[in-house]
TrEMBL record:
SnoaL-like domain segment(s): 9-136
Cross-referenced SUPFAM superfamilies: NTF2-like
InterPro entries (alphabetical): NTF2-like_dom_sf, SnoaL-like
Protein name (database record): SnoaL-like protein
Entries under Gene3D superfamilies matching the protein: 3.10.450.50
Amino acid sequence: MTTTSAKLQRLIDKDEITELVHAYCNAADRQDHEKMRALYHEDATDDHGAFFKGLAIEFIDRLPEIQAPMQILHHNVTTLNIKFPNSAICEHAEGEVYILAFHQIATDDGPMDLLIGGRYFDRYQKRDGKWKFAHRSVVADWANLHPQSQVNLDNDIIRGSLIGQPGADDPSYAFYQLFQRGQR
């Protein structure tokens, strides 16, 4: 492979990994567990701290329980650092992904807000021409907790707007033809 060809392939690989990372955020926020499964290799591992540590597929199996009290999920990728080995053909890469993740969580005392600034430590592998997660760890760098939610979706300024929500009832599924549940 020529230097130009190698650089072009590296850009293609980086773009595919970037799409993978963004698809994860969409799957998490829409609670689309079928889509989430499609993002990991079958033997991939996941480390979500106290929530879970083990095979990613087992983590995804537990997501309905973990996400049940979450009324709003909103993951935002801010900085994406992807590194490849110094070889012409790459079938693995590593990523440090900075995120801001907002969670509105139902509690017995009413909804609370949690905004987390953190990072994902990722390992990606390309198998059968497809990049997927081989491992993902979650690292919290800071957290902002409000025991009483600051979210106000009844405010006049947004009254009448479409309101996003986890699950199949999110307005995006009625709008888009190309973005469908369960599909990467």
